[in-house]
């Protein structure tokens, strides 16, 4: 199997502040595998969130062994993909699915997820991460655009202010729109308790990772009844470990960060068995990676669970040309593997 690696850098619509780091452009890697048919995948570690750097991902991609990848496609055991970095595993699995679908003429979703899509449309959650002053306008805009789920970023100000903002947004969104909250581990235990008290009368779906000390999440739920979702915590967990986190209402699964498609499917399956919602979510991938996430969300969500794919709208350009229409409340489930415009890329191997 022929292995080629490319690098991209895409401008953002505005600088992105992530856990203290400011991103001015989104950089990532694309993998092209060719063996009878062609398949593309994306490895774009996210600074501040991914355990690996883009340099480490590039080194691993460049060193991929085409013969071992051909074995992976045949289902050879032990898994030839074991030991790959999370973003690299995501790239390889998506590219192999493209090769498999191209060779057999089967659907990309089926090749990627081992089953057909359970829905024809995937609902998407809108992402609001603007300043507090602009949040109301944004909330109105996404409601009018037709989003039925909205995620609001919190943290970076006193919890009382965050709680007041949530109250305003709940009012702005009105009924029929579900709200997710995400302070990205900004609060200590007492702050989270205070937040829970302030928003006790408000309806929202869940708060992702409220606590700096994630080990106390279960205790927080017992004491406050706050509905919580796991996100960053998944980095330290195996799917089987979810058994010990039954207090969680949902798990937010980002295949770029947590280690690819098959692991995401295992997390999703285990979560559902335990009665938790499994939310497939993006990490500012290009249209190529995001398209694969639509397929994955279509295979896992039954058309019912909104996927967190609105990071795509923060990119000011794409590796796919023409740009796919991914920034909308419902996305048709992808049946064909995406392929980029090679002119927009820089070959590294
Ligand atoms: O989940 C979503 O709706 C969008 C994705 C998102 O918020 C996100 C994207 C990259 C890194 C971290 C996060 C997060 O959930 O904290
Ligand atoms: Mg989160």
Automatic annotation (TrEMBL):
EC supergroup of this enzyme: lyase
Cofactor: a divalent metal cation
GO biological process: amino acid catabolic process; menaquinone biosynthetic process
One Pfam family it belongs to: MR_MLE_C
Gene3D superfamilies on file: Enolase-like C-terminal domain, Enolase-like, N-terminal domain
Function: Converts 2-succinyl-6-hydroxy-2,4-cyclohexadiene-1-carboxylate (SHCHC) to 2-succinylbenzoate (OSB).
Family named by the database record: Belongs to the mandelate racemase/muconate lactonizing enzyme family. MenC type 1 subfamily.
Protein name (database record): o-succinylbenzoate synthase
Taxonomic classification: Bacteria, Bacillati, Actinomycetota, Rubrobacteria, Rubrobacterales
Gene coding for it: menC
